[in-house]
Amino acid sequence: MRSKVPKYVQIAEILKRRIANGNYMSQSFPGGPKLVAEFGVNYRTVRQAFQLLLDEGLLVRGENERLVQPGGAGRTPFKVAFVSSGYCCPADKWLLAVREAARKYRCMFCRVVFDTTDDAILYETLDGDFDLIFLSVGTPDGLLLDKIRQKKEKVVLLFADMSAEGIPFFDGIDNEACALIVRHLARRNCRKIDFFSVMQTPEFYTARRDVWEKTLKELNCTGEAYCVMGNVEEERFVQAHRLAAGFLKQGAFREADGVFCSDVEAAQGLLRAFADAGIRVPEEIQVASFGAPELAAMFIPSITVIRTPPLAPLAAELFEHFLGITPQPGRLRFNFDYRKFTEDELIMQGESTWKNEGGVP
């Protein structure tokens, strides 16, 4: 079906997005003939698109009437890469926060996607001319860790805290916030609170399991841990459903009042397994999880979760540090301290736990 939007408007919108992503910060803005060939239109259509960008101030006329970005001439761009596996979807909040900060500080931004940590593109990116690389690879080891150590002055690891090795770290809320969810369940008459995880890297579920275990002891509660390493070949919520169903057949969760899940995918699979087994949530057992409130709100029942505060201010701090605008010498950890927030700010109440304390509707 033909679009009702004029072609020159479509071209202008594409060019706006390219400008916002920093595509033309390290090269000249393309001239009319190049865009005519690229989009298969006539020169008049391209000129109309140019005029829209001129009217909005996204382009100005420089020497010899060439179109350039305001303030872009002679500027060496600060190049930023966001590197993650294909599992990190385009809507991922960390990706969006980094990309938005790159736009705010007029940096050139590039997303790099890999399939496995053996991929050559990981090493090529680390050896490339990027000034700042956000790297989501779990906890690296072997040759990849050696390469990251060599390049640590420009690498920021996501989610894996290796600040003790001098590698900067960017995450959301501290895993210690898991204690808030365990306490939330305990205040709703849960005395046996199990833990369920199907994480694909051990450092995530280990850290959250440790907080769950410590908090149970503080509350004089009990619980069993059901942790399985996920398979990257299969969607995590599908694995969680299959594994939770298997645990239920073996008698797991039957004596629990509540379950704390390491992430929303685990909670989603567990809820489906409970529904299949005729176990009502929250009437017979309550379920809560860490993170992803946008997804948690979409399920039936919606899931009570710990949510991460908006990442934009934290990403801005990180960029200002690396750009030298507001340097923070010695700072390696960029994440939120949960103690600076109220419980209401961090817990999103869903239908999977009782709304009132005391464990009643």
Structural class: alpha/beta
- Can you give the helix content as a percent range? 25-40%
Q: Which whole number gives the mean pLDDT? A: 86
| Structure annotation, total helices | 13
Q: Report the portion of residues in β strands.
A: 15-25%
Count of individual beta strands: 14
Query: What spatial order of strands do you see in the largest sheet?
Result: 4-3-5-6-7-13
Write the CATH fold name of the largest domain: Rossmann fold
CATH architecture designation of the largest domain: 3-Layer(aba) Sandwich
Major β-sheet profile: 6 strands, parallel
Radius of gyration: 25 Å
Classified by CATH, the class of the largest domain is Alpha Beta
Low-confidence stretches: none
CATH superfamily of the largest domain: Response regulator
Characterize the structure shown.
The chain is built from 13 helices and 14 strands. It is α/β, with parallel strands linked by helices. It folds into three domains: 7-68, Arc Repressor Mutant, subunit A, CATH 1.10.10; 79-167, Dehydroquinase, class II (Rossmann fold, 3-Layer(aba) Sandwich), CATH 3.40.50.9100; 175-308 and 341-348, 3-Layer(aba) Sandwich (Rossmann fold), CATH 3.40.50.2300. Helix 7 packs across helix 8 (202-219). The model has no long low-confidence stretch (mean pLDDT 86).
Keywords:
361 residues, alpha/beta, Arc Repressor Mutant, subunit A, Rossmann fold, 3 domains, 6-stranded parallel β-sheet, 6-stranded mixed β-sheet, 16% strand, elongated
Q: What's the gist of this structure?
A:
InterPro entries: LacI/GalR-like_sensor, Peripla_BP_I, Tscrpt_reg_HTH_GntR, WH-like_DNA-bd_sf, WH_DNA-bd_sf. With 361 residues, this protein is α/β, with parallel strands linked by helices.
